[in-house]
Design goal:
about 290 residues, alpha/beta, Rossmann fold, three-stranded antiparallel β-sheet, about 25% helix, signal
């Protein structure tokens, strides 16, 4: 499966996690994609500078403006050759400042690698109805919406749910619900699993946890208990991928789960198609979503 094509560059202006700095919004022309350079421990700016293309389809899974998802399809997908589906939940510290657009390069790359991608937008802290538990409710509804994709070249019998950072937290929480469509696996990318511990930290994303939860663990103990990931409640096939150079989500967040820690990989490497982390993600997806045999 080849990563190729002419794609549009979009630079997203967002506050960079923990730094408090800002970038100017900009949009660039169509650019050639290159996979020659292998990079590690990439920055958020590296991610937002990547080329991407618009989703092939966009659907609302609820009545609110942020309750939608984008469907990317690989060129190889057809009625006779439906593509396996990757459901993706973007991160961004649960904050409204970080929307789905920074994950467009990943969705583009995964589609170019042969996967259909259903990437979910949801209400976040700062959005009406966002925060706890609205964000999780949106993600669950967004995942359930894949049942409406049966008319597209998508194989709904080969599905992996994945999420990055705070999106990994929401994806794992959603996977604990029994009424979701059938999943072959759940893959967390630098996922937050213990929000009570995470909220005690002092980086920008850790400080955002209390705002998402509506208070500290002392102020809202029942909510924090509901927002914890329990390995006993998860499907049997769960894998957490974590970079050893991650400065935003501590490695301890993957303790107690089946995990793979990648040396020299940082927090955002999972979103960049020119990193060893992305290669590992593709390897895991191909393992969980093998091609059909005659």
């Amino acid at each position: 499966m080849v990563l190729a094509g002419r794609l549009r560059v979009y630079l997203i202006a967002l506050w960079i996690v923990g730094s408090g700095s800002n970038i100017v919004n900009a949009a660039g022309p169509v650019a050639e994609t290159s996979t020659a350079t292998i990079v590690e421990n990439v920055s958020y700016q590296n991610i937002t500078a990547l080329p991407w293309r618009e989703a092939d389809h966009r659907f609302n899974y609820g009545p609110q403006s942020l309750q939608f998802g984008g469907l990317w399809l690989p060129e190889s997908a057809s009625a006779d050759n439906p593509a396996p589906l990757v459901i993706f939940v973007h991160g961004g510290c649960w904050l409204s400042a970080y929307d789905i657009r920074h994950s467009y390069p990943l969705s583009t790359a995964l589609a170019d690698s042969g996967f259909a991608v259903w990437s979910i937008e949801y209400r976040r802290s700062g959005d009406p109805g966002g925060g706890w538990p609205g964000s999780l409710e949106d993600v669950i509804a967004g995942i359930s919406h894949i049942r409406q994709l049966q008319d597209f070249s998508v194989d709904l019998e080969r599905v992996v749910l994945t999420g990055h950072s705070a999106g990994g937290h929401l994806a794992l929480l959603a996977a604990q619900h029994n009424d979701l469509p059938s999943l072959d696996a759940v893959v967390g990318l630098a996922a937050i699993t213990d929000i009570s511990e995470y909220a005690l930290g002092d980086n920008g994303c850790q400080k955002a946890a209390a705002g998402f939860m509506g208070g500290s663990s002392l102020q809202a103990p029942a909510a924090y208990e509901q927002a914890q990931i329990s390995v006993d409640k998860l499907p049997s096939t769960v894998s957490l991928l974590h970079g050893e150079q991650d400065s935003i989500v501590p490695l301890t967040q993957s303790d107690g789960f089946e995990h793979h820690r990648l040396p020299r990989a940082g927090h955002f490497d999972w979103l960049h198609p020119q990193t060893p982390a992305y290669r590992l993600l593709i390897n895991r997806l191909e393992h969980y979503l093998p091609e059909h045999t005659p």
